Amino acid sequence: MKDILNKYMNRLTSLSEEEQQAIIEELNIEHFNKGEVLIRQGDIPTKCYFILQGCVRQYSVDEEGREITSNFYTEEQAIAVFNHHREDKSSDHTFTCVEDGVMVVGQLDIEQDMYNKYTQLETMTRRMIEENLSQVQAEFAVFIASSPEERYKTLLKKRPSLIDRVPQHQLASYLGMTPESLSRIKKRVFRDSM
Prior knowledge:
Layout (H helix, E strand, L loop, with lengths): L1 H11 L4 H10 L1 E5 L4 E3 L7 E7 L2 E6 L5 E7 L4 E2 L14 E4 L3 E7 L3 H7 L1 H27 L2 H11 L2 H5 L2 H8 L3 H14 L2
Antiparallel strand pairs: 1-8, 2-7, 3-6, 3-8, 4-5, 4-7
């Protein structure tokens, strides 16, 4: 697991190997079980996460009690709720483990101490946030302009591992369709690829 962190830090920072090892030694790495909730909708987040292994679903429950999936996070992706600027600091979403996982867990209240100690860590975090924002903006633009079938094909091309890792009703919610529609689209796409 530490190899993943080293690779990630090498890509986003100019930290020396000694600095990387010092940071890794201070990190809290935890194992999580399938179904475990990391952050619950309505709670004020106190932690952030970096996935080394596993898949996490982000969803909210609407007024009618329906779960609406807005994202899935997998290896080398960070989970953080950026709402410090809001009066209501509670999370708008629940984050739940879709499968067993291993993650770096950061405490938001000591994050600044780590940045002060390792200035490159703040640079790495900023770059990670910029990459994530760019990806989310691109996915949103494609999602809005696409038909349900096009959304599924885009998912097949860009994030194919989700097809087998995520329950189909959650995948359908993420793609903005019913499970029945997803089933029909999957059959049609499979048939057309023959």
